Every structure is written in C-alpha cells, then in structure tokens.
Amino acid sequence: MQKYKTEEEFLQAYNPKEFDQLSMTADILLISVSDQEQANYRKTSKKMMSILLVKREDYPYKDKWCLPGGFLDPNTETLEECAKRVLKKETNLSNIFLEQLYTFDAVKRDPRTRVVSTAYMALVDKKRLTDKINPNASWFDIILIEEKNNIIELTLTNNETTINFSIKKTLKEKTTDRYTFKTQKNKDIAFDHDIVILSGLERLKNKISYTDIVFNMMPKYFTLGELQQVYEVILNKKLLDPAFRRIIANKVEKTDLVQTGAGHRPSALFKYKMK
Amino acid sequence: MQKYKTEEEFLQAYNPKEFDQLSMTADILLISVSDQEQANYRKTSKKMMSILLVKREDYPYKDKWCLPGGFLDPNTETLEECAKRVLKKETNLSNIFLEQLYTFDAVKRDPRTRVVSTAYMALVDKKRLTDKINPNASWFDIILIEEKNNIIELTLTNNETTINFSIKKTLKEKTTDRYTFKTQKNKDIAFDHDIVILSGLERLKNKISYTDIVFNMMPKYFTLGELQQVYEVILNKKLLDPAFRRIIANKVEKTDLVQTGAGHRPSALFKYKMK
DNA sequence: CCAATAGTGTCTGTGAGACAGTATAAG
DNA sequence: CTTATACTGTCTCACAGACACTATTGG
Known about the structure:
Two copies of one chain form a homodimer. Chain A is an alpha+beta fold. Helix content of chain A is about 20%, strand content about 35%.
C-alpha cells in the first residue's frame, strides 16, 4: 500500500471506483387514517388506517404494488431528503412527518443489483391531501390485520383491488423486542415491501403509547372521540373512555369550538398541546 | 426508454454502473461493563461502561479513534454479517448480541467519497473477552457522562489517553422522542462516530427498562447487587433496592450457588430466566 | 464489635381498569 | 321519547417510591 504524507494528498489519490459500490433507495411507508361510510345519520363514521402504494410500471415486479421510493443520488442528498423528494412527487405535499424506520439489506432483495433500502415512516392527516396525488399511486385501507400463532395476516383494499399477504413473526433474540419477519404468502407486493409495511405498523403501534406521534395524523381541531378512534384503530383494540381521557388529558387543550349536527350531544373540539 | 417483454429480458440488459453508486459501511458500538479498582477489601468494585475504539492507522482521520467498522461487500454479505465479520476480526469473538441502531448518511460525513454507514450496537460480557483483541483496538471506560442545558459531555479513558467531546441534543419533532445531535467539541473521534456513540448509549438507556437486553452484558451467574450496579451505571442514577428487586424478580432465577469472601453477608447467585 | 453489603416488610401515593351514571343534540 | 355519543365520578387493584429493619460475613 502506498503511503501518503497528508490527508489531502491521500484524498487526491483516492478513487472510489476501485471498490465495489452499490445503490441505495429510500422507501416511504406513508400512513394515514380515513373515515369510512357511516351506517346511519347518528352513527359516527368508522376509522381505518390507510397506506399509500404505487403500481410499478416497469420491471422488475412490473404491475405489482410497492411503497413509494426512489434511488438516492449519492452526490447531493441525504436519505431523508430523498424520501421528501419522493413524497413531494407522489403526493405533492411537503412538511410531512418522517422518521427513519430500519435499513433493509438482504443481498437478493432487488433482482437488478445490490440495493440497500432505508425505510422511512411518514404520517399525514388525510384531510391535508388534495387530489394532486400521482395517478399511479393509490391509498389502500387496511381492512384486516390479524395475528394468530405468530402469523400476521394483512388485507388491504383500494376499492378496485384487494391485496392480501401474511408474514411470520419470530423473536430474534430472547432478550429483546426485535422480531424477524418472513413472508409466508404474498403475490401482490413487490420487493420486501410487505415486511417494511408490517415493521412500520408495529413501530407506529409501539410509539403511539409513549410519544405524541399520533397528532401528526390529526387535523388542527378534533374531538376526543375522533382521537380515541385513531388510537383504537392503530392499537387494534377498544379503549375505555375515562382511561383514555386521563392518558391524553395533558396532551390536548380544549377550545371554545364545538362540533354539532350528529344527532347526539355535541362534542368539544380540542387541539394538540405539548406537554 | 427501451421496453422489455419480460423481467428476465429486462434484467439481462440492466447495467448498474450506468447509475451513480456509493459505498456503505457497518460500524459497531461495542459496549460492555468493567469492574474498577476497589477502595478497600470490603467495598465492592465500582462498575463502569466501556466501549471499544480503534485507532486509525491510515487516512482519513489518521491517528484518531473511531468505532470498529468496515466496508460492506455488496456482492456477498448483509450489513449485519459485515458487522459480525468486523467484530470477529477485532475481538476474536462470535455470538455477540447485535442490534441495528441507525443509518447515518450526511453527504460529507466521509471525506473520501459518499459513504453511508449503518451503525450496530453490540453488547458483551467483558469476562468473555480474551487477550486476543486486535492490537490497534482498545477499551475506553466512560468516566463522565453529564447533561446540562441539552449539551452532553462525555469523557473516556483507556488509562493512556483521555478523550473528551460534547454534543448538543435538540428535539427533532415536538411530537416524538427523536433528537438531532450536533457536535460541539471533538478533536479525537473520527467521522461522525461521536454522535453514533451517544445515540447508542441513549438507545441502551431506553431499552434497558423495557427489554431484557442487559443480560447480554452479564455472565451466566451473577449477584443481584452486580446486576443492580449495571443498571445504575447505564441509567446513570441510583436505584432503591426493594424497587429494583421487584422489577427484575421475574427475569431472574435463584441458584444454589453463593458468592462469599467479600467481608459481608454472602449473596446468592442468580441466572437469567425468560419471562 | 465494625463496616459493608444482602435481603425483606410495609406504608403510601399514583394511576390504570372497570363500571355506572348524567348530559344533550337530531329525528 | 329514542338513540347514540359526550363526558364525569368513583371504587378497586397493582405497583413504584420510600424508609426501616434484619441477616451475615471478614477482619
């Protein structure tokens, strides 16, 4: 090996192409909560989690659905900037909550070449979304998420197509909370994005109980009933009213506004307040 | 753009070198707990957290300290396998607890070329370590970790060299627990590894309270006093005996063994038991 | 006996789970 | 008046914080 006297000298002689390189992508799991149809005038509309998927127009995995994502430009941008750029392109929105999820790096995860992907979780209030969404992208509602014998089954629909896949969840180390996910059944989702989706949903489920992350999916003003429903759909279980109100009491602030017209006692509108 | 009839056809024509590529590394924050000297025969030896650093022999950052790490071979290995390979090389140990920490990707973090690094946290019981540690690697004890006005100061020593750096911690989003770390003072640690170290220590601090991760740093048999000291050094605060014993009660199993010879009541030896 | 750690009993306050009860709009 | 949701009061139980107390060794 040659020796260099200074760092400058060394850097001038350095040629990265001498080494094997690879490509990276940032993939984004964009999650929101939608209102579904209501059964009668008095019932409140049911809430559902939804995620944004994109139909692949080219090989590989042509015509399958995948998460919005794009290749990192190594010369100019960070992975988070790359993620923001992709989100802007797909949804025409900036200022979306973003958090790094995990880096997925199986050797054969992309058939083209070695591609390591850093996944980001993004949260948005669906009311912020205009119709300027990219035509090859589509919101899918999560209509079923069920865990049985460590096998998790997920069903999504965008009212045209229904997607269903299942993943086996195994504890990676007996001392921690990390799981290994393995695809059991999947014919509609490209790459390893089925696993990214599930990891993201689990992360959201965890973080909702010890952070204020949920307010990134809420409009500025909301009722406590709505907020509770969002918690319930994310946690996938019913919560008791008084307990819920105690928990979020010091995260929200009551306003003078009320919401009426629902065939029952009007509810106060609240807004987020930092603890 | 050309069109292809099948995925195979597409893949055959695909040339990754047409696109800008980059390099990746896996860097490992290996953490352990050491026994320090005892003041007199009766006192128990004080515990300290220690991390493994490597002295850089080449440019860039020649002669500075950094985390053990290595370039990913894109053709053969995952990042975790790369991390294991590096750990084996530096410590001659396999079967070390590893967990992906975070992917660091600032554009200019490596002066050579674009290098994205996925950091792993590794935990080990120091008694497992032989003297087969790589000569350019060295254990540094964390002798000070102090937070004041969101500036965290860290001092490490390996009894020859003392390293000191400080980092500013800012809440990234008001709704979550994610922080942005920014170097305030650092002249001994290469790359952005000062920030990796701090993120890792914070992660360990968090995870110790809701997982059994700490047992990866313990020998097979240990006293509750020792275990409590490890908790205390990681959490950086004193714990009350009865509260501590209640918390770990169903994580440990008492054995018939006792530890004597310490100038006070002998203590029972325990071992880890999964909940 | 002393010093130091090992280990336990128990009081108290906080806070979640549970359930029952009151309030109020629209049809 | 009915229906459905909004919102509150309060009991109970689990559990963490706090402190006091007993146990046991080597010197």
